[in-house]
User: What shape does this take?
Amino acid sequence: MEFLVIQSLNGLASASSLFLVASGLSIIFGVTRIVNFAHGSFYMLGAYIAVTIIAAIGGQDALGFWTGILLAALIVALIGALVEVVILRRIYAAPELFQLLATFGVVLMIQDITLAIWGPEDKLGPRAPGFRSFVMIMGSRFPSYELFLIVVGPVVLLALWLLFNRTRWGTLVRAATLDREMVGALGVNQRLLFTSVFMFGSFLAGLGGALQLPREAVTLHMDLAMITEVFVVVVVGGLGSITGAYLAAVLIGLVHAFGIVLFPKSTLVLAFLVMAIVLVVKPYGLLGRKPSGHAARGQAIPEPLLSPADRPTKLLGAAVLAVLILLPPFLGDYGVTFMTELVIFALFAASLHFVMGPGGMHSFGHAAYFGLGAYGAALAVQWLAAPMAVGLLISPLAAGLAGLLFGWFCVRLSGVYLAMLTLAFAQIAWATAFQWVEITGGDNGILGVWPSEWAKPKLVYFYLALALAGAGIMALRHLIFSPFGFALRASRDALLRAEATGLNVQQLQWAGFTIAAVLAGLAGGLFAFFKGSVFPTYLSIPKSVDALLMVLLGGVQTVSGPIAGAFVFAGLEEQLVRITAYWRFVLGLIIVLLVMLFPKGLAGSVLAWRERQSGDRS
Amino acid sequence: MRLDRRHFVAGSAAALALPTLVQAQGAPPIRIGEINSYTAQPAFLRPYRNGWELAVEQINAAGGVLGRKLETVFRDDGGKPEDAVRLAGDLINAEKVDLLAGGFLSNVGLAIADFANQNKRLYVASEPLSDALVWGKGNRYTFRLRPSTYMQAAMLVEEAAKLPAKRWATVAPNYEYGQSAVKWFKELLKAAKPDVEFVAEQFPALGRIDAGATVQALEAAKPDAIFNVTFGADLINFVRQGNTRGLFEGRLVASMLTGEPEYMDPLGAETPVGWIVTGYPYQDIATPEHTKFREAYRARFNDYPRLGSVVGFDTVMAIAAAITKAGTTDNEKVIDAMKGLKFMSAFGPVEFRAIDHQATLGAYVGRTAVKDGKGVMTNWRYADGAKYLPSDDVVKTLRPQ
Assistant: This one.
């Protein structure tokens, strides 16, 4: 009994920290529809800035300490405003999720800026004056600061409720969450509203970070650790619902607190299991409502109809292929391995594009299928002593089966909920690879997955990868312009009309999802034999994000986009790492600039430019 | 990393001047390809790189190796083993390096080691602790400098076995290093003291410890003593919650790596007192070779060395010694020279064992204390790595022959 009470209190304390950050993210998403990856970075900045301020003004007394916390949150709010005004404001009209790309660029930049300013060492913040010690609860010592946090959560919840229900600004925010075009049409200054909402959300993130000082270390890894947890909380609670976010934070906090007692080795996966279960049972989260207004219409702007390549594009494609075939023999070993990697990534990105573009299903967890393909091949080699050919057959099969299983659940959802469910499944797959040590080797991975003798020369393997990846990409292209592809796009653009014409939308999407998984699995298998080893990182969030970046960078609405995106993104990263120690900053900056200059993606912008040209001529 | 302007300018000038300098001398430099997780693990790897560069400068100032200068090509794997493999290919094929070195995370080290085996190229692993690197997945081409998980656990077991504690609880990050450390600690302690029992184990995810709940779960088991493997941010959170909740009062704690300045310094005045730890009391080690190293480091970087600095420094010294012994940079001959290679580290004489390619570099074992608001080690002694390895017969069963 005593243990239950104390552990519940521990869960509630963590819940308050989660809630502060999650509420900000939820508010920002509700109004701007931006999935703000940089929210975790604002949280981290809040903590770092608070450490510095409190040290500077001498936070030994209560006044100094709490002033420091508040100042830090305000500074983060200003940084948030800066990001919104300089970057995001310019790209609200871009396709959905494109802003996500920009915020990811911001994440990379803030990581390196923080490292440059505060250095690599972890920091331990001061304890809070007045809350330095503990109180006795049922015979156990319980930190008083944790009690303070337990109170902070509901207090902030109440304050937010008052703000949103009793002030004009709050009413506007709620209205914009429901239908922002309508709010704009009624004469509300949208720019100001968006900036102020973004500022306010950032303030909450900064406050959440600053309030962590007395209980947690300040580190360079806080940002990404927090953002995944907070995504879970926001989605479980229901996007845009503040009360839901609090309930979800409590749920996740308690699951953690008791999970470590019941399943001490499975802490990684618990939160995502909860999310998967909640989304399967309640597709819009605990307190979320089915979106109406602009949110229900989905795509901010209608997607242009994909058209088969015209003559110049075909010629360009043929030229690129010719270069890919003819150039490598003259490149030397390293050039060849680099090209091999690009070709494999192109297939990976193309498979994600298939499910995102024509399929209209955003996936945040596509690495699951890439990784399961790689593990399928590696496990076959390790446990069945299978040759490479068999391994390469097993990888799409394994990924396809996973796609079949996960897809069945995913296609029942839409929008960001679907995306988060894909993420949950990917995390479950990742945690399995990570923790089922006897079979998968855990984080040390599986080594010695080298190609068969005949394919060992790097050039031969390149051509093998080119042939398989090329065939995969061509198959996807073919599918997009087949009746199946048209039906898939009809389901995306006009759900009701598609159903009215007798299309079984869910089955179509399920098939599309599985096909994408199969080809991602093939890419994973090729990657496994190419690297000679597989690791849980192949299924991890960063791999999914990489694929997402490639597709978005290239342009979702073009068929050639993902290929261009894969080449540009992987190529950039590879080159930057060689040039500068601050490659994350430069990469982030380039991503942000590309997003602002080419809001349709690289290939999309080229197409648009060509259309304008031909339009001028006629 | 602290760089004053003078050093910065001097360093840049040296970097710019180096290629021409070398060409002027005629002999091409010996090139080392170094791969590490610089952006993912900066706290450990910045001091490491300083130590590395200090060693290279010292060797080159003394005329280089075999009359040739040493030159390093650094690469950042970002903590991703698959990228490390690509970079290893880059270093060998495009940069034409003579050998590979580096690695911090165990999976990155294992990936490079497997690559080295496949491509038949020497790889001197500096940091990765995984036992698999020299045992389960050991190969002809891979050598490892740092004392492994097994060795560090064995050092702590020696002390833990002297304690009266019978009921032990463990807390370790949930990945290979944490799991192996707990496995060895349990196995070795039970062998040394059959009446101990393990009453609780916690495996928080690396970097994600829910410290309050973890402390409470350990407390609930009422152990006599705790074996801790967490480090970095997890350790800080664990210590703060444990201090407030009284977990450590009246309990003995044996703790891996906690005495290393990288992990102890951030704890400051909250460093727990009386823990048995492995680490590096840089202030107090007064052997001539260490004093020389420490003062050179201080003069060069205006900072004190961390354990990473020692590892970086010693890796270069080991490589230089191997090439000198081989009398050539021929890959296979240097590998033969590495087997049984004796060289002088900052901690004293060290040997790369021929039987499993593990170096006998040791660690310092002592108790934690707080002095002037900083964590320090007291009552420490040097535990020579050679004494904390299993017998040759056991090693032969662990390593593929």
Chain B touches chain A through 67 residues (CB under 8 Å). Residues 1-24 of chain B have pLDDT under 50 and may be disordered. Chain B is about 45% helix and 20% strand. Chain B has two domains: 5-148+285-351, 150-284+363-398.
